[in-house]
Specification:
0% strand; elongated
């Protein structure tokens, strides 16, 4: 009977996770096979851990709802409790784009051509955006016109700050705009200000994440302590009505955590190069 509860809990948890993953927007395509393989490996390990946690909780409690909640928690809590790597990565990319824009401005002042400037600055670009810039510099040599290469670069970066730099370069490539070095310097300064603002906001965001971690730790610790040392206190959840109440409580707790995480997010600027302005895309 315990094995049946474990199997039911793990199966329902897996079904819910697959449903949520299917409803989410698809991730951006990985840029190379090495990244694709790493993503698949991490996903497989993570899925195995989720199923193992759901099965263990299902066997220990004989509550299918507890197994489902444990599986969902095992899938989502590592990202909540762990360091905010996504924000650090975004901040590093903004600073890298700012440094590249300033480098472009200085190189263009030495009377270098636009394509030559892109190639030269790509070689010394920050590591966070070097792959995209190397591809941008190699595009004209592969027979791709610079405006098309710049739009592809903006699409690959998918970053509002990179859109600003790409837009200045597009104006120069398509309309022979002058004094783009001054425009690039302005973009670089704007990107630096944005990075500074993100850093200040990150301080307040860290306090929110700390509060979330404390709440999760207290709730999880209390639940484990009650299950181990005061199981009679949890006996009302053995019934079907108790399982329904547990599901409602779990859904409410998850909703509150989701709301707390959302209020700590840093809204990004709107993008100005989304592909809709590309003649090749618009003509399809």
């Amino acid at each position: 009977m315990r094995a049946l509860f474990a199997l039911l809990g793990a199966g329902v948890a897996l079904a819910l996770l697959l449903l949520v993953s299917g409803l989410r927007a698809g991730p951006r395509r990985p840029r190379d096979r090495r990244v694709r393989g790493e993503n698949l490996g991490i996903s497989a390990v993570r899925l195995a851990g989720v199923l193992a946690v759901a099965a263990v909780v299902g066997v220990a409690t004989q509550w299918p709802v507890a197994a489902v909640l444990a599986g969902i928690a095992a899938y989502t809590l590592p990202a909540v409790l762990g360091p905010d790597r996504a924000h650090k990565r975004d901040l590093a990319r903004v600073e890298a784009v700012a440094a590249w824009a300033e480098n472009l401005s200085g190189t263009l002042r030495s009377a270098a051509g636009l394509e030559q400037t892109i190639v030269e600055t790509a070689a010394v670009a920050p590591a966070e955006i070097r792959n995209e810039l190397v591809a941008l510099g190699a595009a004209p040599r592969a027979g791709i016109r610079l405006p098309q290469a710049l739009r592809r670069f903006a699409r690959d970066m998918a970053d509002p700050t990179a859109d600003l730099v790409a837009n200045v370069l597009l104006q120069a490539a398509e309309h022979e705009a002058r004094d783009i070095s001054g425009s690039l310097s302005g973009v670089g300064r704007a990107a630096r200000r944005q990075a500074s603002a993100r850093l200040r906001i990150a301080t307040g965001r860290a306090r929110t994440r700390t509060s979330v971690r404390i709440i999760i730790t207290v709730v999880m610790g209390s639940a484990v302590g009650l299950a181990m040392f005061a199981s009679d206190f949890l006996s009302p959840y053995d019934s079907a009505l108790g399982q329904l109440i547990l599901a409602v409580l779990g859904a409410g707790f998850a909703g509150c955590l989701t709301w707390m995480m959302r209020i700590g997010r840093v809204p990004d600027m709107p993008r100005i190069l989304t592909g809709e302005d590309d003649p090749a895309v618009a003509g399809r």
